[in-house]
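Before a colleague's protein record goes any further, I have to sign it off. Alongside the sequence sits a line of tokens, each denoting a local backbone shape. I want your independent view on whether this chain really folds as the tokens say. Where you disagree with what is written, explain briefly why. This is what I was given:
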Amino acid sequence: MIVSTSISRLSRYHKPVLLAGKNSCKDGNTSYVKFINARRASHTNVGTEVITLSDGKQLSLSTGKYARFADGSAIVSLGDTSVMVTAVCKHQSSNSSFLPLIVDYRQKAAAAGRIPTNFLRRELGPTESEILTSRVIDRSIRPLFPEGFHFDTQIMCNMLAVDGINDPDVIAINGASAALSVSDIPWNGPVGAIRIGMIDNEFIFNPTRRQIQDSILNLIITATKHNLIVMLEGSANEILEQELKKAIKLGVKECQSIINAIANLQKVYGKTKRKIETNEQSQDDDLTSFVKQFSETKLRDIFSKHTHDKISRDHAINDLRNNVMEALKDANSDFDVKSAERIFGKITKDVFRTLILEMDVRCDGRPMDGIRDISCQVDLFNPLHGSAVFQRGQTQVMCTVTLDSLESALKMDAMSMLVSGVKEKNFFLHYEFPPYATNETGHVGRVGRREMGHGALAEKALRPILPKDYPFTVRLTSEVLESNGSSSMATVCGGSLALLDAGIPISSSAAGVAIGLVTKYNETNTDIDKYKILTDILGIEDYFGDMDFKIAGTKRGFTALQADVKIPGVPLKIIMECIHQAKVTKWEIIKIMNQVIRTPQQKKKDKMPVVDNLEVPIHQRGKFLGVGGMNLKKIFLETGVHIFPHDENTYSIFAPNEDAMTEAKEMIENILQKDREPTLEFGAIYTARIVEIREIGVMVTLYNNMMPVLLPNSQLDQRKIHHPSVLGLEVGQEIQVKYFGRDPVSGQIRISRKVLQEPISISKTLHRDNAEGM
């Protein structure tokens, strides 16, 4: 049955190939019989590895059962959360200068037992959480592809089931590692990933969703064998340096068991890796020698000229490249332009790194631990609630703060809410990187994955310093006006200044810095022989370097970190040095920022919003709201003030400024004081006027302009009656009633007529009935 099913499917999709004869197959090289036998064998090549982690949880890895047409597939489960990951790579090179790797992580609604709530009731474009998870997976596996591997590769991660306890992002990283390991795609893995939290000074591996909410640390660590770190991504609540270092060490150690399990799975069930010829291997030695001889000395001069800025240095390198191409054209008109440009780029990178490693020279003249010149400014425009510009070298960021009502909080999508447990965010940061920031042209409007990732990192860095239960929703926007490296960390600095300028009582100023790395491997290309750590890296140092380690925090501790590694792992020793250097640098930056603004702005701006609470008695709620909320709509249209229900008796008032709040309160006062009712005394007797007769009772008023209230049949007479007409009552008639206050639930007035009547004894009732009978 399995063989016939495979033939049927092949006939449907590859009919022209099968018609050519049984000795032909899809690629025309493998015989039909061998192809069927291989496909039959793949149905039995199913394997599973189960790892028991330090916390007692079991991580299950399996392959060979599903998605067998993919180059590699794996299903990873932790608890009842399962993710399937597939890996597919083209056999032809894309002739690009970089690795065209695509990672798509999708959260299926069915995995959580839900149906999408959009109009089409199906999964549409990727959400922000899916994009951020895809970036984490990408950064975990990209450094381990061979140098010069430029084949289109796609990793797809489908969430099969989620239990609401275990986060699927770390599971997906391990799934991608397993899928690539068992595939025939060249990849120098495997890697293992772990999430680590910290509650009550104790570290927790793979904390649950609820534990994360109580944890001061949420750190994802991806590592490879020999305790080499490939990726770091995390947020913290001002965690101390020694605690962060300990967490990383424990996490890397925990990853080793996962790495060993994936390696065992690869050894038993993995495919033989493809033999490929990279662009680097096919380079012409004569062409390389010519380009190197013509450009190496001039490149050294360019990188040693410290007066160059970003634009002039780029122009100098581009001019030299054009001159090299012209010289090659004169010498040999048949040369491959792409190969020559690739060789020139490699030589440029080698010269740049050599100057740093051997001469301790950075292209802008700074020492290895030096930071660029910093300038800050706040309160840029009066109408803005908070604003700041942070300039570090040639990186310039403008941040603005907008305060709005709590009802304007960012609502999370249904799946992100189920996975993370966060329903809404009253603080969010939007990062914008327009093309003019790097002297380029391009489309504007669509938020790319890079922008979304940088904004999320800066938001993580600033969230811990915001006050709890702040009565406003805070939107922080960051627009990069100039970019020459570390724009996301400049956003942290500028955002902190803008929050202070808005008068938000943050706990402390926060700053961020990007730490770079340049390494040199030994002759066997296995261990790092020499390295240099660069503080506050430029864009070119990020491009030609081996790591971009972004670290942010306050004077007390760290709040966010993100490590992008470009080599197959960084030793723990180097990571520890980077963290210490970041601690020293961020404190120096905070001192510069404090010279501009140290504490929240006390002087209130004219355009600052205000909030207040209003208690409305239950019996006045209808008059306050008006028919269909008409009064609230009128207040909003005339003053711009929003009024929202807070609880049964309290309403929250949000006004764009103090004048609007005053005007709105006057309107509310007029509504509630208009025709104010006189004070009624509990137990007093009043004369009520009948205004309407109903089947259940009569509607009466106790004073002029009063809203009619119901006097029910049960309170009209000592006798039980079913309609007021039996008592001869008429509209306009006045009757005596007794007031018993208001109902505590509905707020309705309670009155009675029967309590004023004399009790009717049974004997009198019988006597009267007999008399009427006579």
